[in-house]
Design goal:
The protein folds into two domains: 88 residues, Pseudouridine synthase (2-Layer Sandwich), CATH 3.30.2350; 133 residues, Pseudouridine synthase, CATH 3.30.2350. Helix content is 23%, strand content 35%. Strands 1, 2, 3, 4, 7, 10, 11, 12, 13, 14 and 15 form an eleven-stranded mixed sheet that branches. Strands 5-6 form a two-stranded antiparallel ribbon. A two-stranded antiparallel ribbon has the order 8-9.
């Protein structure tokens, strides 16, 4: 008989690796614990890594609360390349010369995005249109109108620039798409840009440094040991 842990409720900080969906990462936890309810607070793209807040049991009722929390990302943008997905998973739409770009120009352009701005969500996203996820429509070659959304970029730090690759740190409100931010920055610079790497470092007070690595999630006791109880989450 398979043991169940349906009496467990809490939050697991999980460090998602590249190459798997957020759903798959969470489903692994659900399967190993054999619990009825799990969820997460914000989808990471398959190629993105970093912090997933996995909710278990009664903690799934807190999903909306944590979905709205601010987030911090580290990312690298590839200048001169534009893809249909906004990252290197997509098809290349255009390529332009970026030889006249330097870190001074990038830092100056980044200032335009600090504060409250409008952002049009990408077609390759989990948002829904008439019950269908946008990325499902995009894969069928269908593009629908998306309304601009108000977001807040609290910090947009340009860490370094070398050979067309910009390393950045972004602190932002929920609902922000870093892929769109990269594309918009590329448009301001006149050469285009796409996300090369993306990692979620923080959600609210929770840091990926304290997260359980996905590769250690094969052990039930290890998972249980790392679950934060409801009393801790509410603090």
């Amino acid at each position: 008989m398979v043991k169940t842990y349906n009496n467990i409720s809490g939050m697991l900080l999980l460090d998602k690796p590249t190459g798997i969906t957020s759903f798959k990462a969470v489903h692994k936890i659900k399967k190993i614990l054999n619990v009825k309810k799990t969820g997460h607070c914000g989808t990471l793209d398959p190629q993105a890594t970093g912090l997933l807040l996995v909710l278990i049991g009664e903690a799934t009722n807190l999903q909306d609360k944590f979905m709205k929390k601010n987030k911090v990302y580290s990312s690298s943008f590839l200048l001169g390349t534009v893809t249909d997905t906004g990252d290197l998973d997509g098809n290349i739409i255009s390529q332009k010369n970026f030889s006249d770009i330097n870190i001074k120009k990038i830092k100056e352009a980044s200032k335009k995005f600090i504060g409250g701005i409008s952002q049009i969500p990408p077609m390759y996203s989990a948002l829904k249109h008439k019950g269908k996820k946008l990325y499902e429509l995009a894969r069928q070659g269908i593009e629908v109108e998306r309304k601009p959304r108000k977001i807040i970029i609290k910090e947009f730090d340009i860490i370094s620039y070398h050979n067309g690759v910009v390393n950045v740190m972004v602190s932002c409100s929920s609902g922000t798409y870093v892929r769109t931010l990269a594309q918009d920055l590329g448009n301001v610079l006149g050469c285009g840009a796409t996300v090369k790497t993306l990692r979620r470092e923080q959600i609210d007070i929770f840091d990926v440094k304290n997260a359980l690595k996905y590769e250690y999630c094969d052990n039930t006791n290890t998972i249980i040991k790392n679950i934060m109880p409801l009393t801790e989450i509410h603090k």
